[in-house]
Amino acid sequence: MTLNIMLFTALMAIGACNKSSAPAVAPAEDSVKTPFRTLNFLYSIAGKKTVAGIHNREPNSTPARWTTQIYTTTGSYPALWSGDFLFQEDNINNRQLMIDEAARQWEKGAVVNIMWHACNPANDEPCGWDDGKGVLSTLTDAQWTELCTQGSALNKRWLQRVDEVCTYLQQLKDKGVEVLWRPMHEMNQGKFWWGGRPGENGTVKLYRLLHDYMTKTKGLTNLVWVWDIQDFGSLSGDAVNYYPGPDYFDIAALDVYDGSGYTQNKYEIMLRAAKGKPIAIGECDRLPSAAELRAQSSWVFFMSWSELTFDKNTDAELKQLYQSDNIITLEKMPGWK
Q1: For residue 281, what pLDDT is reported?
Q2: Distance between CA atoms of 20 and 279, rounded to whole angstroms?
Q3: What is the pLDDT, as a whole number, of residue 21?
Q4: Which residue of 77, 127, 192, 319 has the smallest Cβ count within 10 Å?
């Protein structure tokens, strides 16, 4: 969606581990006004503080499991809750429980993030994680062209599945719940059926079609669109080759998994790609430290991945991060009333 905004762009000195100057975006609190309370809030904290979040992976029958685990570990709830429409039969059948939890989290004042590990539209739903007929399966070039051709049989099949998730997102719209919507995540990740196709006729094309269908045809005006890529060695080029255009995202997110951590180079690439819009850590296993987030202060939120949060970070590290003064936990949120 188009946001007619004016931003201040500044050069900031970046932390002791990197003495060079780097571009950073920290718009003044009153300089950005959007239709979304969530997005306005994220603009207001850019360059100052970072929202703490965690994803709640399957099963959808317990959609706050990992959020609760963070509280047990740190004494604070994360300010961002995340769920997934998912792909297996039991999780599809329990989508309503996930949506109900999203509404509860919103009422508590949390930022709500939802993603979708979707089944390959050329294959059946429900599906598995496998590369045969599951989420990791592939489409031929001919199938991809058909999928991206409006009115084709494969395109219609895909939109039927989109319609199903739209009914749940409509429920949230009716309740006034804004959703950070992160579909087709890790666009530059070739393991997913939707990803790894650079250029205008690749992954970006399907993403744009999805955006227009959900916002214009389905009228889901409660979605804050999160464009998401992963931190491969090709990141600099990927940020260009998978760029959807300014009308198709509100937040630019990076998934940090390559083992090199939160480098200044990754940070600067995302700042350039976002072109003044907020940037976020869309997924991670190893969390940044509070000091790293002070040095790279334009990350408006981080979302650690469920069980990997506890595999890659000690309880002491989690508690220290969640208690830091530049980290926003649920009790520090302003609420949406």
Answers
A1: 99
A2: 20
A3: 38
A4: 319
Q: Is residue 15 part of a domain?
A: no
Peptide bond just before 78 cis, omega within 30 deg: no
238-253 core/surface letters (b: 16 or more CB in 10 A; e: else):
bbebbbbeeebbbbbb
Residue 69 lies in a domain: yes
> What SS3 state is found at 80?
strand
The number of folded domains in the chain is 1
- Contacts with 304 (C-beta within 8 Å, 6 or more apart), sequence order: 53, 54, 55, 283, 284, 285, 287, 313
Residue corresponding to tokens 């749940």: 168
**The pairing of beta strand 21-25 with beta strand 9-13:** antiparallel
Quote the CA–CA distance of 131 and 192 in Å, as a whole number: 9
Residue 76 Rama label (left phi>0; alpha psi -120 to 50; beta): beta
Confidence (pLDDT) at 74? 98
Q: Is 56 domain-assigned?
A: yes
pLDDT at 31: 65
Q: Give residue 337's pLDDT.
A: 82
Asked if residue 18 is part of any domain, the answer here is: no
Q: Which domain holds residue 49?
A: 30-332
Length of the chain: 337
Averaged pLDDT, groups of 10, the chain, 337 residues long: 38 34 44 92 98 98 98 98 98 98 98 98 98 98 98 98 98 98 98 97 98 98 98 98 98 98 98 98 98 98 98 98 98 95
Neighbouring-strand partners of residue 255: 230, 283
* Cα separation, 154 vs 225, whole angstroms: 24
Residue from 203, 225, 205 nearest 215 by CA: 225
Specify whether the CB–CB gap between 289 and 298 falls below 8 A. Answer: no
Query: What is residue 9's predicted lDDT score, i.e. its pLDDT?
Result: 36
Alpha helices, DSSP H, located in 33-176: 37-45, 65-74, 89-93, 95-108, 141-147, 153-174
Distance (Å, whole) CA 197 – CA 206 = 10
Please state, in angstroms and rounded to a whole number, the distance separating the CA atoms of residues 193 and 208: 16
